[in-house]
Design brief:
Blueprint lengths: L1 H16 L1 H25 L5 E2 L2 E2 H18 L7 H7 L2 H5 L5 H31 L9 H26 L9 H15 L10 H7 L9 H7 L5 H32 L6
Antiparallel strand pairs: 1-2
Length: 264
């Protein structure tokens, strides 16, 4: 496992190589977060509620999405399709290394970096803005919150990896990923809690994997779900984790059978 630890550690060095790009990306995230934060602060003044959300709960939800985003929605697997198209995949197939664990290790390094910066950014926001924030103290909710975030991490990793495998059959791997990322913010609940949508739409989204990337863990943290709702949500999360994993494995095996390329 030492080699995978080294891979994760080296990811830090790769990210810091392009410091300006990394800093600009973090600034973009802060601006986006503050835009949504101030929008909801205006929509929900103190003492008012909207569909069961007070200002404290809504702002906690918005700030929470920033932290969970750094854990769940950060990924390096966007380069899988490029590796396949360029022929670099051959180099990995000839080495004693698990390709899935290789990219998962890079993801862990990327997530660790993003968590550190997200915590620093949120700390600065708390010091300057002093937002009303809901602190969950019930260990039951905290435990299942952490477990749901771990499941979310795996779901997103497998979804991203699956998108990269399009490279086996098409050189155009960025267009599907761009569409996916564009729609993800809405379906995952990063802009607003999904349960403020019309009930019919929400009931459809509830059975999709995207709901369990951000929205579901935060609803657990806020203590707004019953035990039955938490158990049902975790069951759906586990189902999608294994379902997407097996789809990825089957797609990977099928892609390798038709893959031909020159490695370096």
């Amino acid at each position: 496992m030492k080699k995978y630890y080294i891979i994760a550690r080296n990811t830090w060095d790769e990210m810091l190589t392009y410091r300006v790009s990394f800093v600009m990306w973090r600034i973009r995230n802060i601006i986006q977060l503050l835009t949504i934060y101030f929008l909801w602060q205006v929509i929900l003044p103190p003492g008012k509620t909207l569909l069961g959300y007070s200002q404290s709960l809504m702002l906690t939800y918005i700030l929470g999405t920033s932290l969970i985003d750094s854990v769940v929605l950060s990924s390096r697997t966007y380069a899988v399709g490029e590796e396949i198209n360029s022929g670099n995949l051959m180099n990995f197939l000839l080495r004693p290394i698990n390709y899935f664990l290789y990219w998962f290790s890079k993801d862990i390094g990327d997530k660790a970096m993003n968590i550190c910066f997200s915590i620093a950014e949120l700390t600065l926001i708390f010091i300057i803005l002093r937002p009303p924030f809901f602190i969950q103290t019930n260990p039951f909710y905290i435990l299942f919150f952490v477990f749901s975030v771990i499941l979310s991490l795996f779901i997103y990793f497998f979804l991203n990896f699956l998108l990269g495998l399009i490279g086996f059959w098409s050189p155009e791997v960025w267009a599907p990923r761009f569409i996916f990322i564009t729609l993800l913010g809405f379906f995952a609940g990063s802009l607003f809690p999904l349960d403020i949508l019309p009930k019919t739409i929400y009931e459809i989204l509830r059975f999709l994997p995207f709901t369990y990337l951000l929205y579901f863990p935060l609803k657990i943290y806020l203590g707004q779900l019953s035990f039955l709702q938490i158990a049902s949500g975790l069951a759906i999360s586990i189902f999608w984790t294994f379902a997407i994993y097996f789809i990825v494995k089957a797609t990977w095996q099928k892609g390798l059978k038709s893959y031909t390329a020159y490695g370096r």
